[in-house]
């Protein structure tokens, strides 16, 4: 538990590629996973986060610091989240959604999921398969039948840019 | 870990994370992505996913979809348009949906499903239609009714009882309930010797029940139809609303609201109360007082919240956004066309046909006949 010394407690987080990060405890406990570790007294040394790489963890910590600096104002928090995610590409967002899920950060999880949905909303089926790494397990006949059933939803789809 | 590979795909996203992402998508995209793979199709078609998607649309902070008949000056088309409204007062047409053949009178709506008929006078044939998925189901009214009788139609979708129920109130004699699940109508239920009048049409569907405003000489009653026992029940009004005051109902934020003139010296002000969530909850709190209302209350209809603003229909065709911090009404730039008959709309995957008892497809029956012979 945080000692009542007046100086903010700092935690050290370690990514799965062995990068170390310092972060204020007050910001880091936005992650329920980290908060539980702190409460269980495991935060004395270094907190290993086996499912998050250094690049993603750096980004998540930027978010933790940014959002915890905003006072309780849901509108401002929302616009911070929008701005934070605005320039992220699909691969980064996919890494972030995994990290947010592992770290149990519901606000980040919701925001990244919504952002990914916004990116894929007008995309083609082929784009989604490539980006999510999904194998088409339909036979050509089956695929044509499913497509035929919802033919009109294929109008107005963006041409693939694969960005 | 996969993260150490320089080149990798994101196929490791577990299905439950994919589900969380997909729940943010509009129905049109979800239907298209059924083609991605068999497992995506199974997930999107799963009744639990359909319910989750519906719940999400309902609780979203901006339920900014309207379904309307699009008209170009004096010409009204045969189609419905799904229109999205953003807080910058832009209207974006998302989708045009054709009516199921022959049925173009909207009687009622709830959870993204419309109750239609072919003829408002006779109303013998009904269609349940989801414009987002284009699916529909049909059924018939079994009783003879005097075409001149006032009829009120209610539609409710209740996850507790499973499926849709259609209520037909033949004023002021009886009502009868059609359960899609059982594919049958109840016997006529008499109202007894009450002398109330229905003063609000259509009803408001929230909390899994629908609310009707009735007038028992001089006194307004908020009643609701409870699909659990097919009975009409009375709801307590906000205490401050005195009996003789004209009240109106609306669905804002997925909760029942009532509104009336403020009558407190603030000129044209309308006060709105909002009821606690859930059918058994009769706790009312004041939501907002709308000031500087440019018209009478009967030409004023709040439709939905668009972020922190309220979309209001003035007269019958004008849309404005009320800005609570400025207390002003912002106009829309929609001179190019008008939309008549607006419905605050929910985008849902519900297939009305799925709530009817499963019927053997003709081919299956034929196959069985062949195998028997």
TrEMBL record, chain A:
Gene3D superfamilies: Potassium Channel Kv1.1, Chain A. This is SKP1-like protein. The keyword tRNA-binding does not apply. InterPro entries: SKP1 (IPR016897), SKP1-like (IPR001232), SKP1-like_dim_sf (IPR036296), SKP1/BTB/POZ_sf (IPR011333), Skp1_comp_dimer (IPR016072), Skp1_comp_POZ (IPR016073). Belongs to the SKP1 family. PANTHER family: SKP1. It comes from Erythranthe guttata. Residues 108-152 form the SKP1 component dimerisation domain. Involved in ubiquitination and subsequent proteasomal degradation of target proteins. Together with CUL1, RBX1 and a F-box protein, it forms a SCF E3 ubiquitin ligase complex. The functional specificity of this complex depends on the type of F-box protein. In the SCF complex, it serves as an adapter that links the F-box protein to CUL1.
TrEMBL record, chain B:
Residues 7-53 form the F-box domain. It holds the Pfam family FBA_3. InterPro entries: F-box-assoc_dom_typ3, F-box-assoc_interact_dom, F-box-like_dom_sf, F-box_dom, SCF_F-box_component. Signal peptide: none annotated. It comes from the Eukaryota. SUPFAM superfamilies: F-box domain, NHL repeat. PROSITE patterns: FBOX. This is F-box domain-containing protein. It comes from Erythranthe guttata.
